[in-house]
Write a structure and sequence with these properties.
heterodimer, A: alpha/beta, five-stranded parallel β-sheet, 5 strands, globular, B: mainly alpha, 11 helices, 79% helix
Chain lengths: 123, 423
Amino acid sequence: MKPVLLVDDSPTMLASISGVLKKAGIASTTAGSGEAALDMVRGGLAPCLVITDYHMPGMHGVDLIAKLRGSAATRFVPMLVLTTDSEQDKRRSAKAAGATGWLVKPVDPTSLVQIVKQLVPGV
Amino acid sequence: MTAFGLAAAVAMADAELRTLLPDRLALLLPMIGFGAGAFVARRWPRADRNAKVAFANPAKDADAVAISMQGPQSGDRRPSSSLQLGEIVPAPAAEARAPNIERVLTELEGYPIFTEILNGQMRSVTDLSEAAAGSILTNLTSADAKFTALLDFIRQAGSSDRVSNVIAQIDSQMKVSREQLARFAERQREDSQSGLQQRSKIGEDTRRVLEVLEGVNGIARQTTMLSLNVSIEAARAGAAGKGFAVIAAEIRKLASEVQALSTDVQSRVETLMRTVTVELQERTDQRELEEREAIANISRSLDSLTDDLSTIVSHQRDVLQKVEAESAAVARPIMDIMGRIQFQDIVRQQLEQLQRMTAMVDDHIVSICAALADPRADLGDVSLVHKLEEMFGSYVMATQRESHSKALGRQAVREAGSLIEMF
């Protein structure tokens, strides 16, 4: 089964979300920045879902989504923004870039698992 | 003014952090608040803090201004609630304030040290919360891994497949044992039947032997009678018959011995026949009875084993169901705790925002110092109102905007988007 790609500059966030997914039996792989995530996809990683933070040093989450939408491996992969930011303008920019949804931290673990299973049936 | 600006920033930061930090980390907040509060109290007496901070503006000479933060202004008798943030109110004459300007300037120039201390404290809280969250996650993951391994072991040990295999093996062995028992019982029955037939044949043969012996006895008796008749005839013949009389006597004697021997053989054969047909039959019957009882006992034992096995399997199934239920019950809170660790990232971002805010305060102070030091300096946008709006614009979280609005006595604007929004 393809893994969920988690992108966040916070190691704690990555450990938290990957731990939640693992408890639900969902495999995941992590990247500490947007650039690292792009490198992983260019290196052959084919995730079933991307969950990215918005505010990260360097490339931010919506830029990453826009670039991933341009990659054949991730063109049709659902992508979520998981961020503390709740601004409408940023949500709209994320939607325009091809994001599938916007989740405001802290997201309830059960809800997160539910969303992942809805977006990727059989995961 | 700057002291109030900083105090307002600290108050907003305190309110925001208390909504996010766990109790243990929240204990650090009074330290930060106390540091800021103590600094403000030391630099600005209460009457001034609650009233106003005024700055001379030589450019406007007697129209020196003060910018209201909160509370009544000297020279203005209105209650604090009627004053607006940034409102310009009359201040005392410039001559009365001039001697304090140099001192105020010196104090304000020392502010970066204070903000550096404050930032250091906030970085410390960030590091502490990050280390604590990391440690919680590591320990939780380790405990969860061990618990999961234990559950997997229990599942594997008692899995339906494994139990089914054991049952199938035992059942197969029992089936073999039952078949062996059945074959043994059948062989016993056949042996018994064969023994009966053999004993019957022996009885028949023995009866024939007895009939033959009876015939021999009859011949002996007839021979005796014949020899008696010969003896009588020999006596009649006189001297000529003496030889025949001797022969007749020998024949009679021989016939008598034959009869005696025949009777003896007959007796022995009858004894043998009784032994074979009666006593042996009784022993065989007894042995067969014991064997049937032994087979019945073994069969009952096998049935009992089957029942015990069913009980064990049932118990094992109950244990497995219990383990699965407990596993699901434990997984939920573990997953929840893992998810709740997100608080650390939120706290980190809040503290980083506070650091940006203290940098704004620093910039503001530098601008004020420049204005104080050089009466001709262009104040530009040195306005607390402007700085506060700038701060408001830099927030990303709804809670930041809410606490900011609350501190300024504004009505918080309800955020339009939901926490989870699918496009």
